[in-house]
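Session log. Operator J.P. requested a structure for one protein chain; no other inputs attached. Running the standard single-chain path with C-alpha cell output.
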Amino acid sequence: MSDQISVLFVCLGNICRSPSAEGVFRKLAAEQGLADRLHVESCGTGNWHVGSAPDPRASSAAAERGVDLSGLRARQLKVEDLDCFDYVLTMDRANQADVREIWHQNGGTEPKLFLEYGHSGRAEVPDPYYGGDDGFDQVLDLIEEASAGLLDDIRSRLA
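Structure written below.
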C-alpha cells in the first residue's frame, strides 16, 4: 500500500458540496494527524463554475465550524482523475451516474457514494444551492459524519 492515500470528492458544480467535503475532510484529517498521509481534492461533473470560489453560503457555514474554503477553486472532473485517486466519492446518484459512465469507458477507481461511509441512513448529500442557509448546515452535518467513517476506512488501509 502506498504511503499516501488520495481522495476526490465530486458534485455537480464544485462550489457547494464537494468543496465543503474537501475542507471538512482535510480539517478532520489534520486533527487526527493524517494530513501528510492524504492528498485531497474536489471537482464537479459540470464546467459552469470552473475557476470560481465556493459559494459564499457554503464558505460561511464552513467557517462557522472552523473550516476554511477560501483557497479552493472549482474544477471539472478529468478522465485521468479516475486513475489518480484511490477514492472517488460522489455526492448524489446523478453525480455517480455521470462519473460511472466515464469509469465504464476508461476504467480506474470505481466511484462510490460518499455517504456510504456514514451512518445517517441517507444515500445522497442534498444540493443546497437553490435552498436556504439551513441546507448548508445539513450538508455539513452529513459530510462530517461520513468523513469520520471515511477516515476510519483510510486508517485501516494505512495500517
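Operator note: The chain has one domain: 5-75+85-158.
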